[in-house]
Design goal:
By secondary structure, this protein is of the alpha+beta class. It contains 6 helices and 10 strands; from the N terminus they run H-H-E-E-E-E-E-H-E-E-E-E-H-H-E-H. About 30% of the residues lie in helices and about 25% in strands. The protein is elongated, with a radius of gyration of 21 Å. The relative contact order is 0.10.
Length: about 270
Amino acid sequence: MPAPDTTIRDAIAQIESTLRLAASEAATSLPMTRVLNEWEVVFLLGALLRGSSVRLYEGSDIFPDAILEVVGPSSTILVRTELEYRASRFNHDIAGCDLVICWRDDIGRLGHLPIIALYDLLPELDGESDALQIVHEEMDPVLRSIFMTIQEWLHARKFVPKGTGSTTTTSTVTFNAHISGKAQSLCSLQYYNHNGYLQFKWYKAALRLLGCEQEFQHIHGGFQSRLLQSNANAETQDEYRFNLQPADAIHLHELLNSLSRLQLTVDPN
């Protein structure tokens, strides 16, 4: 009788081969055109596994996200699976999980945990190829986590990454919103490569068109006294800026929750 870990490894290999086969057969018929966040990873996984020997046995709002049931010739194996948009977002006890399924494997290794990256199977569904020109792995890991959290928040609100710009001191990705029938630069994320902070800037012209500049200004002012980099050009004639050091990560979710209350209603893409 094979050892339990061998059985799990066999089941994971079956999951990977099932996904690979399904991706090759369904590339032109999937009910989606891009993958930009974790929920779309969940949706894509469900679409790829439909009708296969791998089924969702149980889903959960807590870790791990899913138990996948793998039906073999003589037995059924349950695989504890965590779903992430990027593998680097995994921040759980690896002992409680057998497998990570993500869109992008941007970390390469999570201890002994296997990682299946769906991007490798369906790269044509990538919705942020421009943003990926930034070499995130070279950045401070806490700033990288802040960047990814903000980027996922922006993607969930249908803001579109329009491209990147890089200099010897900065790496930037800018996001558009469709306002009054045209694409408008709304905000950007910028690494300061040698100064140890990340800038999350918003463009005043777009906020005025959306009718929420005054409310945004109130949120911006309320956070400046709490951010360590608060005096580093926090506002210009055209921009509001949140300058985030690694230690400011403790304020990130509160900041995004505050911004979520704004009426950032944009046209459908």
